[in-house]
């Protein structure tokens, strides 16, 4: 979303089926497969957005982030780059066609239209391709 906005796209909207960002890193999310004691299996040096490095002291902190640290990092990123207001929570995308996006919002089916759609899905249960119109 950040990259699209920086490239000049207007009205960028993200859809999140849960009540918060973070996906599997949000242990309050019922679809999360994580547990409170979990640590990422990749170091903070490699698990970061290029323009938003982890702020940590390697002499005093672990190189691998806990689930809470990852969740906090994602929230900080979304806050710093002002992405939260552009995310439509409790919205599950059901289908995308070149003409419309079919979704549920708070359980109610809706249909919306955008000029371009990108699908980015982090859910490992079902892989979905990147779609661009």
UniProtKB/TrEMBL annotation:
Q: Which InterPro entries match?
A: FAD/NAD-bd_sf, Flavin_mOase-like, FMO-like
Q: Give the organism the record lists.
A: Reticulomyxa filosa
What name has this protein been given in UniProt? Flavin-containing monooxygenase
Q: Does the keyword S-adenosyl-L-methionine apply?
A: no
Which UniProt keyword terms apply here? FAD, Flavoprotein, Oxidoreductase
Q: Which domain of life is it from?
A: Eukaryota
Known SUPFAM superfamilies for this protein?
A: FAD/NAD(P)-binding domain
Q: Which Pfam families match?
A: FMO-like (PF00743)
- Similarity section: Belongs to the FMO family.
One Gene Ontology term of the molecular function aspect: flavin adenine dinucleotide binding
